[in-house]
Amino acid sequence: MLKSELLKILMQVSSGSLSPDEALKGIVQRPFVEAAHGLNLDTHRGLRTGVSEVVFGPGKSLAQLCGAVKALSEGKKPVMVTKIEQGSGLDLQKRFPEGKYWDIPGVFLLNKDIDLAHPWPALGRTLIVSAGGADLPVALEALATCLFFNLDAGLVSDVGVAGLHRLFPHLEALSQAEIVIVVAGMEGALPSVIAGLCDKPVIAVPTSIGYGTSFSGITPLLAMLTSCAPGIAVVNIDNGFGAACFAVKLMGD
Amino acid sequence: MLKSELLKILMQVSSGSLSPDEALKGIVQRPFVEAAHGLNLDTHRGLRTGVSEVVFGPGKSLAQLCGAVKALSEGKKPVMVTKIEQGSGLDLQKRFPEGKYWDIPGVFLLNKDIDLAHPWPALGRTLIVSAGGADLPVALEALATCLFFNLDAGLVSDVGVAGLHRLFPHLEALSQAEIVIVVAGMEGALPSVIAGLCDKPVIAVPTSIGYGTSFSGITPLLAMLTSCAPGIAVVNIDNGFGAACFAVKLMGD
Amino acid sequence: MLKSELLKILMQVSSGSLSPDEALKGIVQRPFVEAAHGLNLDTHRGLRTGVSEVVFGPGKSLAQLCGAVKALSEGKKPVMVTKIEQGSGLDLQKRFPEGKYWDIPGVFLLNKDIDLAHPWPALGRTLIVSAGGADLPVALEALATCLFFNLDAGLVSDVGVAGLHRLFPHLEALSQAEIVIVVAGMEGALPSVIAGLCDKPVIAVPTSIGYGTSFSGITPLLAMLTSCAPGIAVVNIDNGFGAACFAVKLMGD
Amino acid sequence: MLKSELLKILMQVSSGSLSPDEALKGIVQRPFVEAAHGLNLDTHRGLRTGVSEVVFGPGKSLAQLCGAVKALSEGKKPVMVTKIEQGSGLDLQKRFPEGKYWDIPGVFLLNKDIDLAHPWPALGRTLIVSAGGADLPVALEALATCLFFNLDAGLVSDVGVAGLHRLFPHLEALSQAEIVIVVAGMEGALPSVIAGLCDKPVIAVPTSIGYGTSFSGITPLLAMLTSCAPGIAVVNIDNGFGAACFAVKLMGD
Amino acid sequence: MLKSELLKILMQVSSGSLSPDEALKGIVQRPFVEAAHGLNLDTHRGLRTGVSEVVFGPGKSLAQLCGAVKALSEGKKPVMVTKIEQGSGLDLQKRFPEGKYWDIPGVFLLNKDIDLAHPWPALGRTLIVSAGGADLPVALEALATCLFFNLDAGLVSDVGVAGLHRLFPHLEALSQAEIVIVVAGMEGALPSVIAGLCDKPVIAVPTSIGYGTSFSGITPLLAMLTSCAPGIAVVNIDNGFGAACFAVKLMGD
Amino acid sequence: MLKSELLKILMQVSSGSLSPDEALKGIVQRPFVEAAHGLNLDTHRGLRTGVSEVVFGPGKSLAQLCGAVKALSEGKKPVMVTKIEQGSGLDLQKRFPEGKYWDIPGVFLLNKDIDLAHPWPALGRTLIVSAGGADLPVALEALATCLFFNLDAGLVSDVGVAGLHRLFPHLEALSQAEIVIVVAGMEGALPSVIAGLCDKPVIAVPTSIGYGTSFSGITPLLAMLTSCAPGIAVVNIDNGFGAACFAVKLMGD
Amino acid sequence: MLKSELLKILMQVSSGSLSPDEALKGIVQRPFVEAAHGLNLDTHRGLRTGVSEVVFGPGKSLAQLCGAVKALSEGKKPVMVTKIEQGSGLDLQKRFPEGKYWDIPGVFLLNKDIDLAHPWPALGRTLIVSAGGADLPVALEALATCLFFNLDAGLVSDVGVAGLHRLFPHLEALSQAEIVIVVAGMEGALPSVIAGLCDKPVIAVPTSIGYGTSFSGITPLLAMLTSCAPGIAVVNIDNGFGAACFAVKLMGD
Amino acid sequence: MLKSELLKILMQVSSGSLSPDEALKGIVQRPFVEAAHGLNLDTHRGLRTGVSEVVFGPGKSLAQLCGAVKALSEGKKPVMVTKIEQGSGLDLQKRFPEGKYWDIPGVFLLNKDIDLAHPWPALGRTLIVSAGGADLPVALEALATCLFFNLDAGLVSDVGVAGLHRLFPHLEALSQAEIVIVVAGMEGALPSVIAGLCDKPVIAVPTSIGYGTSFSGITPLLAMLTSCAPGIAVVNIDNGFGAACFAVKLMGD
Asked: How do beta strands E202-206 and E232-234 pair?
């Protein structure tokens, strides 16, 4: 609550148009909804942070998921649930038949019509680039999130450093983007190479793809954080959602 | 080198205005300067990446540092050296008396007049916020980098979560910024709190301040990466320079 | 065995009211019961430590669990088993039909009537606060333990730092508690914020909720240990039981 | 700021005894002092959290330390600085000759007369127990903090598990304490043993004493967190100050 | 693309035998095939790196695997898929009945007739040596890769340091090899011993065989990297494929 | 092969009673048996190291296990297989009906009649002590190994530090043992306490029992290695077999 | 205190030859000496554990060290101080001129005449074997401890796996020892090799010698714990003292 | 000792041309020299492993270093000492004035004339490529080792991925090399990029250059091990010597 809002409320109290008790309510009122099972849904997160509440799937029972989707979708508002496995995803789709579950990124969408099927647009103010074929789930989670929040976004896949020339046809797309989200597992070198080649800021997303010394994504995470190329910032392992949120806050309406 | 540039060169060859040999030279020519001691200074990094080459101090001998500063400052170009300790910093200042060494952030500047003394502007399109008094060196490195690259930047210091109310007078500055750089050591909670309060993307910078379980910055790094608040991306421990570079790529000229 | 008890026994020997052999038995007698399968149940742990023996479920076979419950419940004494999965929990309930298995916290109770269903009391001398909806299992384990040991305890759920305003309606409950147990996963920032806001000691419980860099609870654990807010102490990851035990030792009868 | 305080301010606005502008100031006013060098001293932390601001030494320059001590000691208020090395400690004593620097715990005290010299009281509502002779600096930091905040505190040293019988003469002191702070390095077994023997809650403080696999305190930290004895909570490595703060919040005036 | 190739193209443009547009296409043309599901198969990797593209199985759906195999096998070219589990392996074999799935190394081969059944040749310019019986899957992956790329390779198994004498009958094979690939789990001592005994360079492959402190292969990995015997280089845990690729680049045609 | 043996062979060659070729065979002959599937069974490991070859189960196929058991049991020699899960254990028993599979320690025995059922002898020159009921599998693996190698061994279970008095009835057994094997999970404090109480060397075995910060046995492992009590040596996590082997080498026939 | 001792005391009370108060004193009396600076010296540790108290140097001030040496040396008893750096070692020697400081192992000895100068005996019931020349400080600490406790001990140095043949002249010494202490840094392979060659139990001591991936001794520690050779137990990094204590408990008088 | 050598000795014994005793001596004779201070110099390591013994500096006293240099240089044989700091290096030079200490790689050379001064040859059968200016010490250690063992080697420095175009002028040198040693710190991406571009095997050397999340070289180490480009093998952090040894074994005379 910013000073200006507070001053407005105080003015109303001072002028008598608002009683102290009502003002108090206004100031401490709950901008959230208590859903079933002890959940408090933060209904004005969008207003406050620019990113409205999205349901994080893991660790929630089906009952909790349904309760959250139901509460957030009131008035046909769009709802997104992330990182849910196929079982729960299909259960959700049964309960909300007008929604759609996309299994590769593990995303459920309600009241929002988004097409995540291949081929994807390869241009956009937010350009998502993925290093390997196995990084697609994370890249698509980022794409889904961008589209859910109405960003102009594109996706270029499978252009990792083992065959860097595959990236070259997309240099112009890079030069036209405003921010680039680079998704990579294994040794995570692609963000460094892209940041060394172009003048756009890079959000790097390490993925848990790999085995042995990839340590479920720790190695690309560390490599991205330690990059000697300028203008890279990093999010959690497999966090396509978080990378997209950064872009949303930057460019969202 | 983008397709369009390449096509232009090929056209010149085709029209005879450029010989094949000259074209070849143009294509593979070295956009870097070989300085003493085996250094290759990347003189068109600014053009290519939007962030011109800055000298990273650690691990370089004084001879290497001087060689690099001399080569990059040709034609009175501005030069910045980062993360140099007091000894080498003062040595540099002796060798380049028109430069200035700032000891808290460990930054040496030549041909660029920047004032890093307290008080700092508390407003800016890039707003730097630091959690504790001991995080200042990193916050000032970020400020110096922003100013070196001509960004409009401000700095608010010592407003960590142990006394969050100290942040409240700066909520309007947050709402006026376009990007916020949050510098914090210890448990690194400040970026989460700020990202939960405002609608600006946050670049989080963990610092090595703390002891025991802060593990020289690993703990705030992990906490920032794992934040449940949307719109946070993270850079290396103590990497004020990198956070600023991200802002430069986003908003630099 | 304190000096005073020992002196009393020696006095009885000296006065002839106790034979040396009986005294010896009294001193070295086994204050535990040998149950089946090599278990030694510590029947006077309550007397000695203020917290009577509770059965830790993991790694025990059903036969061991049943043997332990049977031995500890002699004379209709209340028994609690913690951290058991649904399969074993329902098996126990079949074997002891007068008991009850609660599946979210994974707790089995016998000879003790406790209601863990939502809604929970939001006030108490011990106040449990949980950051996210997915932290409920751990928060409920803490609540069950408090109630099992007859503490006056309450639970406030889903008030994490991504929407801190959800905590505000509960500030008075915080001010009325004597000790606060804060349960949080992800980046674990809630205990820092609460300890910075109120004058009650905080027992922080990291949870394994999260993915990637939450490292199954290591990140919130480290963040809580490194907090810059005063008056926080931490227990093992997911250890709602242990946090409650601390409160029991402090305030139990 | 609790509801009741806010309601009072609104009432005053409503009755005209306070103008909206003044009310605004009252609500957002700064309960902190801006000291030199970008520090914001949190002057009402004591009121809010029960533990007034103490100066954490590491990472601060002498100028910052002096500025902080000066600002906080206004009106002859007691000031404590923790974890400062001998050099800075003696410098502070020169600048504030009426203060006293204690070198073993690395504590500087001003306007507060506390005796940390051996022998220490071995009884107290807060009883500090240290495992080894080398754990004394941390144990004394805890003792200094307790006494600074006027707790009734005692200290029993060098009674680790390699010779547990050394603890026996102090069993009565344990039974009279209300909370026990146990300081141990190496394998950190002492808190488990004490928590298994007595009915008082234990705050365990791992120390960085040891070599090799003690990993600067990580091993005792993990052992304390994983203890199978009930009623132990843990603070950061070497954090005698934090353990004492927990006791202050619990029992302070 | 080397200078000489580029010069040739430019000459052709200059002489008019190639139009600028065609030259441009030649320079930036895609030496890869876009397969289904967002995969870009790097068809001239063999030419460029000496090791043609092999399909890495993990994280790919059956549809992706089939698409990749089909695209790479055009013109009856040999194809290898690595690290696929039995389910997908047999599925592949059904779809490409002329191929063969070997379950111990988890390798699928098409258009390439290789016999991986015991006994294996115990001599070869590339000699693979495995420490324990449980290391065979990794050793056979190395053997399969060598044979796929037409190397002269042999395999000696189960000669670890717990019974070093088992290695002695193979000393002559070691002396005849040009490079030795040593596969070992547990404490990973075999590469050190072999490198101390013979004058051939050793590629060491740690395996995830073991339990407890083998930490899924971290311990042999570290032991191999830290070896005091000269001439050892190390690849990822369980990376028999990578070790063989090194040999292929060294000795392949 | 010791000097004396070699000299004897050379003497025989010199005297003509042994031809050079036969001598060569004698010197380099294979003291191992090549079994199916690339296994080399070390048949004179008992002679050389005092501990004959035991089959380590994990990572071996049923075919490999059967081959190894068959080869080692030739001539009705006793065979032990360790760490096999119930499925493979029962399969082995079917193939070798005269053998016996014990499921708690996961041990299969052939041609060796050992009783591992409760109650166990509580006395022995090698005394095994386990801290918790869930540590039994590891303690029984140690017991089985001792008995397999004909040691005089006993087992005392469930006497951990949360109720140390349970250990007191066994102090005399400790004083009569020659070596003590202490098995403990969680914080692993029991070996320290026992080594501080008695004058016998202690082999400490950390177990993977616990959750959260027990880190699958890393915490008790580190605590045991860092113990401040003298005379403790440590083996791998869950390595009851290895601890027993140490005793076998010390006291075996 | 064993049952028999306790029964004897109770008998005396019963017969009137001991008053209850005196008996109480006898039972709880302090078998330790309070030295200066809060130290409690455990004077009957030798009796109880077979290893009398030795002063661990690190973290103790010179005053503490001198106090401890003085208290323990009463009546010309032998005293050993371990792991002290040259400065403190020479200071001790000045204060106790009849003592001797050996700088390579960092050991100070008083009232005990031991010669640690090269050459060392290469035979003994306890045989110490060190892998590299840089492991000597740890090996000599083990030798000093053995000799301090009157063991028959020998030392063979610099016979690591990079040139294993250097070990061969000592195979007979191995076969005559009863226990072998193997000291190794780097990859720590020597204990595996020795345990695979001979039938003596091995106490393995990892050292912090090495760089990079030796991680200050973690790598040899892990390799030793994970060894596939039977009969190895491990102590802390650089803990020559602890390895020797194990031998003392086993074979000491 | 191979079978053929052994057979030859046995033949001589059999024919009487060698007595059993002399044969025994021949077989077990010591191919090493006992130098002062417990060192055993492995004088036929060159013969056996292809890499003669080089003195590893760290952890050795000046006396040990001098003893080793003196013993190995007998008969004017060339000697190299690695990783010695300036102090000891200059001391060595004083003692052996005909030798030379090079301070950047920390190498001392005797009886071997090698020039390590800039500029270095940029071509060679072994080509060393370093990513940054600060990686030079490690790259030069590799160069010195190659030249010491008479390899044809070159060095290209400062061509890291932040400005990859600096590598392009050296593509032909890459194509002419037989093996490439790539030295890189920070995120360690250069080996991946080079292995993806050329058909030579790559020995990757991570360096400890960097700060924060470079973790003293762990991050480039992990990135190199996890590379998705084929044909990379890795050595210890900063181990330029080891990488060169691999090349020596491969191509040395």
From this structure: parallel
